[in-house]
Write a structure and sequence with these properties.
The complex is a heterodimer of chains A (298) and B (324). With 298 residues, chain A is mainly α. Chain A is built from 12 helices and no strands. In chain A, 76% of the residues lie in helices and 0% in strands. In chain A, helix 5 (117-131) crosses helix 7. The longest helix of chain A has 39 residues, at 18-56. The mean pLDDT of chain A is 88. Chain B has 324 residues and is an all-alpha fold. Classes of the chains: A mainly alpha (298), B mainly alpha (324). At the A-B interface, helix 2, helix 4, helix 5, helix 6 and helix 9 of A face helix 1, helix 2, helix 3, helix 4 and helix 5 of B.
């Protein structure tokens, strides 16, 4: 009945014009390019870490202390044994401090504090802790434990600095998981006559455990890679040391002091140590991911 | 009888929570105390904005450090945020479902690399490789003050900003992704139903809804970049005066502490504590604003169905589609 031209006009109003199509394609390509750009540094870092790092890995690299001897050709510069053991010791003590306190505060926030003004204040301060630069934690611990006690650097002082850094991560991740524990579980235990502390220790914490392990492992991984808080707390040294009351070496500090060396062999040791550190941190991340996948809560 | 352990646990845990507050307040007071001699000499304003950091003459004006911190972290935002947002858009709106999880994991892997490793990689790989390109850009832009002209050094402001951009990428991208996943499907479907292309849907339904969340994520990234220490110390060159241009050496607040604290005595040490205090306050401000924005974005501020705002929004969408 009607002429064909108006219908075509009407149809054209619904079609996507070539200009809009072109714009869409350009925008999508730009977004895709941005994503590719984001992945380029990752590839480059992994590639160079492996290429340079694997080259300096050897049996003696892991089983000898650095000698500090970097100027005379032919003499060995040594490996990174003291740095690996130092990192393990310092981070272990830091975890022993931060995990119980962190989980304790999280339990308090969820079970007792809830939405009171005091709980909100604590949450706010925990958020403040999250944003504090890691070097400032080093300064804090320096003021209190080095100036305050009049003694020199020591491994345990580094542990305190790292513990401060881990605390907010542990508290926030544990709080999120504890909130996921169903209220019905708590209420049934209370209805059976269990006192509050038994409900927390036998019902709430075991239920939340796998989820909390994830957050804890991520906090440990973060602390293990930190250099700045250790510089003026645990300092650096060459010898392997099992006494946390004395100077202690660590992987990040070892890498940092090797970076500035003019000797190629020492810089290569830094690459080897960096690869070791990244592998340790990635393993922790991987385990954390696997556990969180298994957890029923998260 | 069961009352006793109950009460003990309650008060014990409350004390633990109070301990954290006390600790932070105590730290802050002690830090101010240690920094006081430096502030007393030049005044808080003078310390922060005098352009004169001379350890031998015991003159401590932190302007070169403040500028270094701001220039490098500003650059990090300029480079990092667009890339991070693009990654987030691609992961939430455009990519095939199978690619989404691996892509997210890969971007988050960047967060697992320690700061000192970024420094190592930056100074021995990235900076030497890019020096030629930087010189080319510096020559082209030689007429613009503070940016071009002059010789490019291996450690410089630009390379520091670039590495910082890579370091803040995971957090900005993660928060943007989180906020984008809260955009109601209704909004997106409404835009598509009115004939919007994918990009138009992203521009008119997704981005406006997420604006404050993305800005908040960027600010959190800024906080990270400002406080970043070791990578910056390695990459910025540690020269205690204002760099002449973007490709020259400089210093930053965090780097000066890491680099000079070991040998510092007396007033010099106090000045470094003061630098730490300025850094602390700066990150507090930035993070405070950031958290507020992220919180506001993630809290439900979606207009209720049938409200005026929803109707207005609908009209706006159709108008934008027609106008495009």
């Amino acid at each position: 009945m009607s002429a064909p031209s108006p219908t075509a006009d009407q149809m054209a109003r619904f079609a996507v014009s070539p200009a809009r199509k072109r714009k869409d394609r350009i925008a999508r390509a730009t977004i895709f390019a941005g994503t590719v750009i984001a992945l380029v540094p990752l590839v480059l870092i992994v590639y160079y870490l492996l290429r340079k790092g694997l080259g300096s890995w050897s049996g003696s690299f892991f089983s000898t202390d650095p000698t500090g001897n970097t100027f005379f050709k032919g003499s060995s510069i040594g490996g990174i044994k003291s740095a690996i053991l130092g990192t393990v010791e310092i981070v272990a003590l830091a975890s022993a401090i931060a995990i119980p306190i962190g989980i304790g505060v999280a339990v308090w926030l969820v079970e007792y504090g809830r939405n009171s003004w005091f709980a909100s204040t604590v949450r706010f301060f925990v958020d403040v802790l999250t944003g504090v630069p890691s070097i400032v934690f080093g300064l804090f611990v320096y003021i209190v434990l080095v100036v305050g006690t009049g003694s020199s650097y020591a491994g345990y002082k580094g542990s305190f600095a790292l513990a401060l850094l881990m605390l907010p991560v542990v508290i926030r991740s544990a709080e999120v998981i504890l909130l996921l524990v169903p209220a019905a579980l708590r209420e049934s235990a209370l209805a059976l006559g269990a006192p509050r502390w038994r409900v927390i220790f036998s019902i709430v914490l075991p239920t939340a455990l796998p989820g909390m392990v994830t957050g804890v492992l991520l906090a440990i991984a973060r602390a293990a890679g930190e250099t700045a808080p250790l510089l003026f707390t645990a300092a650096a040294t060459l010898k392997t040391n099992f006494n946390l009351g004395q100077f202690m070496n660590s992987l990040p500090v070892q890498i940092y002091s090797d970076v500035t060396s003019p000797t190629t062999a020492v810089v290569n040791r830094a690459w080897g140590a960096a690869l070791t550190l990244v592998v340790m941190i990635l393993l922790l991340n991987l385990i954390a991911r696997l556990i969180s996948r298994r957890s029923r809560l998260a | 009888m069961a009352r006793l352990p109950d009460r003990a646990l309650k008060y014990g845990l409350t004390a633990l929570a109070a301990l954290i507050l006390a600790l932070i307040v105590y730290f802050f007071i002690r830090l101010v105390g240690e920094a006081r001699p430096a502030f007393a000499k030049a005044g808080v304003f003078g310390f922060t904005f005098d352009n004169d950091w001379n350890v031998n003459a015991e003159r401590f004006g932190a302007l070169p450090l403040v500028v270094g911190t701001l220039v490098t972290s500003g650059l990090a935002l300029l480079i990092g945020v667009p890339v991070a947002v693009a990654t987030a858009i691609y992961a939430t709106e455009l990519c095939p479902l199978r690619v989404r999880a691996p892509l997210t994991v890969l971007v988050e892997l960047l967060a697992a690399v320690p700061s000192v490793v970024y420094g190592l990689w930056g100074i021995f790989f990235l900076a030497p490789k890019l020096q030629g390109a930087e010189q080319w850009v510096a020559d082209r832009l030689s007429s613009i003050p503070f940016i071009g002209g002059g010789a490019v050094t291996i450690p410089n402001y630009f390379i520091t900003g670039l590495v910082l951009a890579i370091m803040i990428l995971p957090i900005v991208s993660a928060i943007s992704r989180e906020v984008m996943s809260t955009v109601p499907a209704d909004h997106k479907e409404a835009a598509l139903g009115l004939g919007a292309t994918r990009w138009e849907m992203i521009r008119i339904a997704v981005l406006p809804y997420c604006r404050s969340g993305i800005v908040g994520g960027a600010m959190l990234g800024l906080g990270r970049a400002i406080g970043e220490t070791i990578a910056v110390t390695i990459l910025i060159g540690d020269a205690p005066q204002l760099g002449r241009h973007l490709f020259g050496q400089g210093y930053s607040l965090a780097a000066v502490i890491a680099n000079e604290f070991g040998e510092a005595q007396g007033l010099h040490r106090s000045a470094l504590f003061a630098a730490g205090l300025v850094l602390f306050v700066l990150t507090l401000l930035v993070n405070g604003v950031a958290r507020m924005l992220v919180l506001r974005a993630s809290r439900g501020r979606r207009p209720r169905a049938g409200s005026d705002r929803a109707a207005g929004g609908g009209q706006l969408i159709s108008e934008t589609v027609a106008g495009a």
